[in-house]
Amino acid sequence: MNQSDFIDWRKKWRKNPVIALFTSLRLTIVLLGFSVALVFFGTLDQVNIGINKAQKDYFESFFVAWQYPQEWPLGTKMVMVTHPESDLAKDTEEISIEDERLEDFRFLGFWDNTFHRQIKSVLDDSDGALEPDPNLRFHSLKELKETLANDNYKNGYAAILPDSTMEKPPPPESGKDKTGGPELAVIQIDGQPPFTLRGIFVPLPGGYLLGGLLLANLLVSAAFRYQLSARYAGIWITHGGLALMLISELVTDLTERESIMVINEGESVNYSKDFHLDEFVLIDESDPAKDHVLSIPIDLLEPDSDNPTDSPTLDLAQTDQRFPFMLVVRDFYKNTDFRSPVEGEKSFDVRKSNNSKVKIVPIRQQETFRADEMNFRSAVVELRAKDAPEKVLGEWLASSFFDIAEYRPQRFEHNEKSYRIEIRRKRYYYDFYVQLLDFRFLRYPGTDRPKDFSSDVQINAPGELTRKTRIYMNHPLSLEGNTFFQAGFDSVTEKQTRLQVVYNPGSILPYLGLSLVGLGLTVQFLYHLFTFASRRRKASS
CA 405: distance to chain centroid? Predict the structure, then answer.
């Protein structure tokens, strides 16, 4: 194909509606506008759902809808909730927060309350007279409602809740509302806005969709707008650099992982723990030389959203023949709190580090996405022998909270083998060991403020010579595609280091893309400069 044929081919296909759309500068402007909107609304939502969930929902998706936050003004309306047969509810549909009848009321509240600020603002309007009862705390909305429905709390007790928690009750014959708790009397609070804006949502294209469309727009525009000639060499290089930068974001998103390696002085470690992901592990401890570990992504234990009552059942032998069990998940908690059981309540036995036994009850908590909070995922699991599915070996509670609370993992024996059950942070194992030789911590003179801290480590890899190095601020260690940063330490003992481990195979791509953009702009500028100078010489001669 000669140059003229190529030009004719381009002119012919540029009339195609799809090609015309993707070569349009208007499409570029629209996509960039949506990108700015995505960043804007994603940043707004980051305050409410945390940076990690905002990144996943807005930039690692094809579509997303921003919703008006309930925490904002006009985002929600607070109502008073009492026993359905209380004296106050019989003839009261709306009440002032300063009503004299509320002077002797005791207000119930949550231990962890998503709407704490809104409730506090309502209570502050009463000059502090309506404080929640300090002796009554609840782990869930259902538990609070069940308490209010008890005849012992018929008069003189109430709760201030968002009106959204009282919406959409099922048929009256069920006697239940959408939270699973009993139906209660709802009294409007005088002065509350008559409407809310929480139903407003803004649909947006997600980061994956915008990135893909921008990449297509960039490449198609270059192919159909600019000829393959020296005149447009700089533009081609610049477009290639921009395309590479877009591709690098996708590569980083799909391949990058961050984890932490915790090492005490004198210890050697060959794994790091993920910051967010958990795993369910079954460990065969019968081999005195080493443990055999079966790891299952925690998501596989979660019930199907379409059938939440179905218990997931996993055949562990299909993954590893050394574990001849059927795993049945009886209950799963995305986030958990724990308390002591009341009389007659089902509980689970766990052992502390001193081997003393305690009984605990898991309490379902709302999943958190705040950067300074953790989700403690838990599961009630049942194991059955593979060769005898009707034989139940036992039921155990496992939780990622156990490690922090210094509870021992659950253990059992089968066919003269000892096994351990855990839910823990996902581990990444390496072909080398990092040994902490010495941890140094320096303070500013006369203060406790850290001035500098560093780790002297020794790298032990099979078949290689050991080597020593120091990891400190802005001086990480690069090893087998992983970068080890000095991230923290144990402030109590000052004998433990915490190294952040970053694995990013595409880390070089943004630099290459940026270099190509710079090179392309330079080439294009020099081409026009030399062309202009050549014309000036011809004109003067």
Answer: 22
Contact between 457 and 322 (Cβ < 8 Å): no
What is the three-class DSSP state of 155?
coil
Place of tokens 């782990």: 139
DSSP 8-class letter at 169: -
For the chain, helix (H) and strand (E) counts, in that order, are: 10, 25
What residues contact 390, with CB distance under 8 A and at least 6 apart? 384
Say if residue 36's pLDDT is above 80: yes
pLDDT of residue 5: 55
Residues 180-208: what's their mean pLDDT? Answer: 85
Backbone angles phi and psi of 347, in degrees to 5: -140, 175
Query: For 216, phi and psi rounded to 5 degrees?
Result: -65, -45
Position 541, amino acid: S
> Does 130 have pLDDT greater than 60?
no
Q: What is the pLDDT of residue 113?
A: 44
Distances, alpha carbon 163 to alpha carbons 36, 198, 412, in Å: 34, 11, 47
- Tell me the C-alpha to C-alpha distance, in Å, between residue 125 and each of 121, 128, 218, 297: 7, 7, 57, 48
Angle at 327 between CA 326 and CA 330, to 5 degrees: 135
Identity of the amino acid at 321: Q
Contact assessment for residue 222 and residue 239, using Cβ atoms and an 8 Å cutoff: yes
| Residue 338 dihedral angles phi and psi, to the nearest 5° | -135, 150
